[in-house]
Amino acid sequence: MTMAIPSFTVETRTRASMLTAIAVIALLLLAFAAPFIVSRGVIQDLFFILTMLVLAQNWNLLAGYAGLISVGQQAFVGFGAYTMFGAVILFGVDPVVAILIAGLFSVALAIPTAFFTFRLYGPYFAIGTWVVAEVVRLLLAQWKALGGGTGTSLPREATREMIGVNMMRDFFGMKASEAGDALTYWLALILVVATVGFIYGLLRSKQGLGLAAVRDNEQAARAVGVDARRMKTLVYLATAFITGTCGALIYVQKARISPDAAFSVTDWTAYVIFIVVIGGIGTIEGPILGVIIFSCCRTCWPISAPGIC
Amino acid sequence: MNWLDTILQGVLLGGLYALFAAGLSLVFGIMRLVNLAHGDMIVLAAFLILVLVTTLGLNPFIAALIAMPLMFAIGWALQYFLLNRTLGKDILPPLLVTFGLSIVIQNGLLESFSADSRRVFAGSLESASVNLGPVTAGIMPLMTFFSAVTVIVCLNQLIYRTSVGRAFRATSDDPVTAGLMGIRPQRIFAMATGLAMVVVTIAALYLGTRANFDPTSGPS
Amino acid sequence: MALLETRGLTAAYGDFQALFGVDITVGAGETIAIIGANGAGKTTLMRSISGVLANAPASILYRDEPIGALLAPDILSRGIAMVPEGRKLFPSLSVEENLQIGKYGRKVDGPWTLDSIFALFPILKERRNNPATALSGGQQQMVAIGRGLMSNPEVLLCDEISLGLAPVVVRDIYAAFPSIRETGASIVIVEQDIAQALKVADRVYCMMEGRVTLTGRSSDLSRDDIHKAYFGTEHHELA
Ligand SMILES: Nc1ncnc2c1ncn2[C@@H]1O[C@H](COP(=O)(O)OP(=O)(O)OP(=O)(O)O)[C@@H](O)[C@H]1O
Ligand SMILES: [Mg+2]
Predict the structure, then answer these.
(1) Domain spans of chain A?
(2) pLDDT digit string (tens) for A214-247?
């Protein structure tokens, strides 16, 4: 009696994946070189796309993997941005350093927020996060030193003398404003790479497996010993950090802030949800595809509303 | 008595926020619908009042009274023909659709009214105030506050004392079993959104007379 | 002439077919019992008649009118009320409000009012202001039956009213049925307890795997016939 024993080999490093890796690296190199190649306007557009991608990746991690549908991520964008403004204006911190501080402060905000919203379920969680964002907005609108309800601008010197700007002026002969745009663009690019890398790593780890289990069936996952609540909290805090950082970065580039813009549910959450959903929720490629479709839509049908530009 | 004054102004301003929230929570409470376009609907109602005031030369309060049934009809139709189709276990579809709605409203208003800031003028009432012993309060903030209290008391009575209110609560508990009682959930939802739009109109009246607004001031 | 009739009724959940051509008739003033093992399709039959599930229009006839495709509120307004499986009371409503809402879609004068239901189940009067879910299982079942009666229906569909209740409580609940019959209403009960079903019903239908396997007057059916129809033992012995 003969039986063909099929033999399987599992390859993770296939030819195709090698080619993809090479393509990604080439694309990244090209992206890093962009400020020397294309105009300032294009760089600003690319900056906007990259930051939206970061926000989308984060929302996707929250909703697509941890099942936390939040409509209050603008809380962290706005809070991060205001922290950065506060650090720069009141304490003279360098904006680039302030971006990191903003990330940490956002985590600090996320801890009590999680305490409150994690008691809520599904739609209640969604509306709870929105309430938190509104409360934070109302509180910050009372902060007179940062312009209260009308907002304020970053001092010109602060952005002109940011870490790296002088160096770029000397090395590449850029104008200060050009150098500022290039710098924020590079930071956004780094943030994208770090975010995607972090999410990719998380999903491949043991925690990521637990997360997928929780998303598919929370009860069953708990039964086999996955600490669902801990996983969700971890994801929530991590996204708060990245979202806060991203918010601060966006407002270093904008250099002008107001509570209504910084806490806009349309700009920082609704568009982001749109991006994730059209690209494909629950996948890493989804937000990338989504942001591409989104920016195509915006160029083809430039709708005048929600004041992103 | 500065702090007393601050507290009073704070409480009176709270009335405006309560009006904003009442409509939102009515819709959310009955159908678990998170309406991202709620703020835009307030602005829409404010523009409706503005149009009635400027074209017909009406008093803003009369204008709001006329706007109420119109807004009810808009809310009813919106829910019946559009939002009902998005309801289900997944909360994402209503989020996306109401977000789309928010963009449609903003752009529609921008097209018809431009991006200029507007204001509804309430005549001499605006500057009138009453003396309450140590502090003074504006008539308009006081009216806002009492309107909010009235709206909330009325909604409460409606929900807990009437047959329609019972149907609201039953539908929110379990739409399928509510159907067995002869309740048509689709219509109950439509009625709830219509009612929310009436509250929105009241909020819009006070928003429009109190501060400037423009087509994009909705979401905040 | 039959008051209510199903003709070749089929029903499916997605691509799972639960009913395969069910024919039953209910005469005016008659009490019918539907028995069958778990998953036989009894609840599906009730949900089809009451309009929770949509069917082919002519597969259900009421006073010779095709009602298969109508929605639940339209079925209720024609006089067919349902006491759903698992009671399904509204937790946000008090006992009295749960009863009141039973006539939301059909306000007709008849023997059943809040007072006559309180007379039928006196305990409910004492607890009228409690939230419905604060009651015991048996009391909740009474509310569910009362809620069904409030519309003064011509046909009352009761799905497993003895589910999860102690025998004494079941007896108390069934004690109300003679008063309901007296008003001239037709009753369709779904019951797992065969003895109870035979006792209360004029005629019995036994279902298995989406089909009617046995029907007859309660007094004419032998235990053996029922056993076979219920468990399909013959079928299993062959296999
Ligand atoms: N919502 C549903 N979706 C899919 N299948 C269903 C659904 N409800 C019932 N079924 C299936 O239809 C068949 C008949 O179910 P039904 O509830 O009518 O049985 P039943 O006779 O009432 O049983 P029981 O005595 O347990 O209440 C079963 O096989 C069941 O698994
Ligand atoms: Mg059943």
Answers:
(1) 39-265
(2) 877 778 888 888 887 888 898 999 999 999 999 9
